[in-house]
Amino acid sequence: MLLAAYVSALVFAAGACVGSFVCCACSRRKSGESAIFGRSRCDSCGKTLSAAELVPIFGYIFLRGRCRACGAKIDPLCPVSEASLAAGYLAALLKFGLGAEALAAAALYTVLLAESLCDVYTGEVPDWLHIFGAAVFFAAAAFGADPVGRILNGLLGALLCGLGMLLISLIADRIMKCETLGGADIKLFALLGLFFGPAKALLTVLTACIIGLITAAVKKVGRREPFAFIPCISAAAFAVSFFGDFIISRYLGLFGLSAAF
Ligand SMILES: [Zn+2]
């Protein structure tokens, strides 16, 4: 019991630290700074942050969300990233237990966070993030149960989800006379198709669209205004990775069917 609590605390702390690094690296991409080198400092006055101020989640609480030197507001996306990745890592541990599956889920959540932050900060997502995500899937599938079946199911999901969304975006672009989905959105859908297979990928698309519509309505985003959709896709993917099987089996159960994918 004590060991389980200790491992959980370590995994939570690891998620918070990785979330902090990803947020720092993505925000530095915006200003063109090195993602790895250079001390963390206040964006407003340039004061170097102390070790206590750098502690993920608690540093923000300790500073009450403001720089101690100049009082400028600290970007709230950083503590949100730290807390969400910490919760994601812990949830992966609780769902899959210690092992390759939990590691693959944690890597996927890290990619989702990095892509979301890149989209918010710069509107551009580097391709290597999708490639890294795909490599994680193939490594996890190769070492898991039924590698051939899982890889074929994943490739079918990636093909259906990627090509499906490409087709929908091309039609939507013509109707709306503007770019509706970005290339990175479509690549991320293909990556999620790979991880989830066709049925859960379709559920992710539907959930992402619902979250996207609600977010756009709440933020009053205009029809032609730029809108970061990847955080909505990521939130949908996170939810589906936990509740997808349950929702799909309940839905199919309404028709007396069982999940084939
Ligand atoms: Zn400052």
Describe the structure.
By secondary structure, the chain is an all-alpha fold. It has helices at 2-31, 51-54, 58-62, 77-96, 100-121, 127-143, 147-176, 183-218, 230-253. The two termini are 36 Å apart.
| Relative helix content | over 70%
> Whole-number average pLDDT?
90
> Helix and strand string, N-terminal first?
HHHHHHHHH
Percent of residues in β-strands: under 5%
Poorly predicted runs of 5 or more residues: none
Distance between the termini: 36 Å
Describe the structure concisely for a colleague.
The chain is mainly alpha-helical and 261 residues long. It has helices spanning 2-31, 51-54, 58-62, 77-96, 100-121, 127-143, 147-176, 183-218, 230-253.
Q: What secondary-structure arrangement, pairings included, does this model have?
A:
Layout: H1 2-31, H2 51-54, H3 58-62, H4 77-96, H5 100-121, H6 127-143, H7 147-176, H8 183-218, H9 230-253
The structure holds zinc ion (ZN).
Zinc ion is lined by residues 42, 44-45, 47, 67, 69-70, 72.
